Amino acid sequence: MKYNKPSDLHQSHFGDDFKWGVATAAFQTEGACNAHGKGASIWDTFTAKKGRVKSNHSAEIACDFYNSYKKDIDLLKELNIPNFRFSISWTRILPNGTGEVNQKGIDYYNNVIDHLLENNIEPWVTLYHWDLPQALEDKGGWTNREVIHWFSEFTAICAKQFGDRVKNWMVMNEPSVFTGAGYFLGIHAPGKKGLSNFLKAVHHATLATATGGRILREHLPNANIGTTLSCTNIEPASAKKKDIAAAKRIDTLLNRAFVEPLLGLGYPMKSLKVLRKLKKYMLPEDEKATQFDFDFIGIQCYTREVIKSSFFTPYIGAKLVSAEKRGLPTTEMGWEIHPPSLYHMLKKFNAYPQIKKIIVTENGAAFPDKVINGTVNDTKRTKYIQEHIAQVMKAHKKGLKIDGYFIWTFTDNFEWAEGYHARFGLVHIDFDTQKRTVKNSGYWYRDFLSDKNKS
Ligand code: BGC
Question: Which residues line ligand 1 (CB under 6 A)?
Answer without folding.
Answer: 25, 28, 173-174, 177, 230, 300, 362, 408, 415, 424
